[in-house]
Amino acid sequence: MSTDNTSNKTVVTSYAHAPTRTITAGGVTYAYRELGPKGGIPVVFFVHLAATLDNWDPRIVDPIATNRHVITFDNRGVGSSTGTVPDSIEAMADDAYTFIKALGFDTIDIFSFSLGGMIAQDLVVKHPDLVRKLVLTGTGPRGGKNIDTIVATTYYDILRATLTRKDPKEFLFFKRNAAGKPAARAFVNRLKERTVDRDKDISMKGFRTQLKAIQRYGRSAPSDLSTLTQPTLIANGDNDRMVPTVLSEDLHRRIKDSELVIYPDSGHGGIFQFHQEFAPLSAEFLGR
């Protein structure tokens, strides 16, 4: 287990200022950032489709990092991590395991969003002893209904965004209504708060490979999530176009004693739109 005796005076608690580090394992150099007080069980963040280290909302990360050691990382072949993007979610989960073990951790908590939640499920099914607590947001189970339609929805919204010169996440993550539009702009602006040491964008080839992996995941036989004993918090918006909200409800049914939070009048990025409610809720859940 990694430990650090650094005094709390030097602890970074702002994601915008978390230094980018690297560690090499299994022939891949993984880029990661860490913040918050070290010691105890870390919270490892599993990021969404096409995302890099720069795609985490600081309003979600920072409140958790107040009391916990937080680690974010680039999947293999994404951002500043080397190697090629795997074409299956299982392989992505294997990479995550390699990365976590290379850092020296035997037990972690997971905070995941979207594709990250799919990777987290595969990891916990294969390595149940590694994970103590699980936060699954904007995601769905392997073989879940209509997960394979994410590809078409994603390309459609990228086209819409290109035509209006907006960030695709404004369409993919938020409703295009009076509540969603300002929440989308605020979210995109928060992602720009870090001004130095920015990460590299995913390549178009890597992005397409991730989409293919999600499609395969959606068309696969379901995992047996009834075996999961980890306390699990599931959250989403009530109108998720990317990973339909019914899949969050499906996860809740499959994972015994899980907690489910659905935010009103919001989409895939409901946890970001309602960060003022969700950040303290998830911090409390992880701190229990």
TrEMBL record:
Family annotation (SUPFAM superfamilies): alpha/beta-Hydrolases
Pfam families per UniProt: Abhydrolase_1
InterPro entries the UniProt entry points to: AB_hydrolase, AB_hydrolase_1, AB_hydrolase_fold
Boundaries of every AB hydrolase-1 domain copy: 43-272
Organism superkingdom: Bacteria
Protein's UniProt name: Pimeloyl-ACP methyl ester carboxylesterase
Species, as recorded: Isoptericola halotolerans
